[in-house]
Design goal:
Elements (H helix, E strand, L loop, with lengths): L1 H28 L5 H17 L2 H11 L2 H4 L1
Helix pairs in contact: 1-2, 1-3
Length: 71
């Protein structure tokens, strides 16, 4: 269980990095009028507001280790 939580944290960190890179580009091009960049920013905002915060709980469960599971 702890390994799965750890992998989910790492996955979230990878997604956060890529969403941040995409948002940086989308912010630079948002005035172009292309709805793609508006949608990309909305998706990044959703990810950072709703999905990335899951890492706080996952990190706590990783730190708890396997002892609670094995008892």
């Amino acid at each position: 269980a702890a390994a799965v939580d750890y992998l989910r944290v790492v996955g979230h960190m990878c997604f956060a990095y890529f969403f941040a890179q995409a948002a940086k580009i989308a912010l630079a091009k948002k005035d172009s009028g292309d709805p793609f960049y508006t949608a990309k920013l909305a998706t990044a905002r959703f990810y950072f507001a709703k999905l990335l915060p899951e890492t706080a709980t996952l990190i706590r469960t990783c730190r708890a280790g396997l002892a609670p599971l094995m008892e």
